[in-house]
Write a structure and sequence with these properties.
The relative contact order is 0.16. The chain has about 250 residues and is α/β, with parallel strands linked by helices. The strands form two sheets. Strands 3-4-2-1-5-6-11-10 form an eight-stranded mixed β-sheet, with helices on both faces. A three-stranded antiparallel β-sheet has the order 7-8-9. A hairpin with a 4-residue loop joins strand 8 and strand 9. The protein starts with 10 loop residues before the first helix and ends with a helix. It is globular.
Amino acid sequence: MNSSALQSRQANQEIYLGDEGMRLMRPDYFTARVRQFHDCERAFYFDLLRSTSYRLIIEVGCSCCRLIGVKNHDSDYLGIDINPSCARRLRDMNGAVVRCEANKFFKRARLINEIMRRYDGAVLCILPFNFLGTMDAPMEFLARVCQMPFDLALSLFSTSETATAARLEYYKLCGINVQAVVRTDDYVRLDCLNGFQALAFNPGVLTRRISAYGFRLNDAKYSDVCNFLHFKRERSKVFRREAYEAS
């Protein structure tokens, strides 16, 4: 994947903390296609979590904690968000929310090790609703996530014309004007006038990249609007703690 256009930058994070970013997460600004994405997302994870035995679900970029409702009753939930809308403790649902920038969370080696110890490794990390595609330097972020010992799941916008039109409609409603659509074999990127960049990744490209870190694709669902990928870490692969302590 050509990463020259995906280098370190902080524009998206700054926008997410402003008015435009707040609108991106408000239901009043969800178009029909965005609601379709959310419905498909909930269905995918509901089925996945009924067929697996995860004891902790980590939703990174949780916003309003939409996915807490699909976990099993006896499993725990941890939401990570730079500007969460939920209370810190969700006791009735065995949940908690941490206000933290995603990259900083994954750099907390002692916390990660304690999570793995407490939940005996039965942990799923979810990057919901195209979270990866709206991160600053998404490939650097993905590399950090893939060094974690968790299983991994991603929700992604498709690269189809239908999904691109849906994204353009969504951002326009949120007051974010797109000045260019950049298409490559690896992704479709929306370049916005305010500096915001939003990517939809080719799922095959992501699968190859994630697999190189010792994961195998366990389940997937593809459609014109959205794609969902679930990876299990190969337990024979030794997780090197120093790899992310030094990153």
